[in-house]
Amino acid sequence: MRAAESAPARQELLRVDNLVVEYAGKGFRARKFRALTDINISIGQGETLGLVGESGSGKTTLGRAVLGLAPVSGGKITFEGQDISHAGRKQRRVLSRDMQVVFQDPYTSLNPALEIGDILAEPLGVQGMEQAAAKKRVKELLDQVGLPSDAIHRLPREFSGGQRQRVAIARALALSPKLIVCDEPVSALDLSTQARVLDLFLQIQKDTGVSYLFVSHDLDVVRHISHRVAVMYRGEIVEQGPADVVTRDPEHPYTQRLLLASPVPDPDRQEKRRADRHRLLEEQRIQAEQAGVPA
Ligand SMILES: Nc1ncnc2c1ncn2[C@@H]1O[C@H](COP(=O)(O)OP(=O)(O)OP(=O)(O)O)[C@@H](O)[C@H]1O
Q1: Whose CA is nearest to atom 2 of ligand 1?
Q2: Residues near ligand 1 with C-beta < 6 Å?
Q3: I need a surface site. Which of 94, 139, 219, 234 has the fewest CB within 10 A?
Q4: Of ligand 1's atoms, which has the minimum distance to the CA of residue 60?
Q5: Domains assigned to the chain
Q6: In what order do the strands lie in the sheet with 12-23?
Q7: Is the full-model pTM beyond 0.90?
């Protein structure tokens, strides 16, 4: 795997100031639940901000707030200098070209009844692209994410998890967005597929200059993909800074704990990850032995 390349001269794309998100409580007179408190982040053009934290810390909510899918109760979200904190439908429609999302689960995020070509052409059609131009763009997108052009006439179920995630990435790229919110996009994949999909994210950034808000509970993943990292804990950002500093020499005790035990919520996945790591290390050891290099 390659590491994230250093960011170009920084031009701010997204800025979040003192953001508060409160969800309505259930039932009459139920109290509101504050999911985010006083969040401040900024993402430059061509930059990746990794958002890390345990389950329930508010990572997804922050991504959703940026996309206009969570209620902003206070503070401000600015995109390319424009206040989008309370963007209406019309402004969101324009923004949807510039901001896209890739979700965690490649098995449920694609319409199982549609051929890949139609899945990729959908956002192009919505934005009014002619059929011939859309067809050409779909081929470009498949090529960009490393899928064969005959994928056009195949259904999602004919693809592996990693390939489906490539389709989801291609769909997100269709309208050449400036920002992609990536919500745990490799968490459902096995370790070696994770590595290949992370490399694809890096290559796409290099080729297109897109920015990522990259949500993950896995510090290893975030370290690899991000220029800067923000650590969330109970709805607040407790630490943020350059990826190598935050992930190697954290200041906040919570980040130090995260570093010691990268939390993986599901015990089965935890076990599988341990086994995967062991297998990879063993493969590396055997390869090194065969090459006559001590492991
Ligand atoms: N639509 C909602 N209505 C009410 N509460 C919500 C809603 N969505 C999230 N929450 C709550 O907000 C808090 C933050 O949730 P969020 O999903 O943002 O955390 P997360 O860090 O992304 O967690 P995970 O890694 O498990 O996805 C949690 O306590 C969650 O229960």
Answers
A1: 23
A2: 23, 33, 35, 53, 55-61, 217
A3: 94
A4: 22
A5: 12-263 (3.40.50.300)
A6: 33-44, 12-23, 72-79, 82-83
A7: no
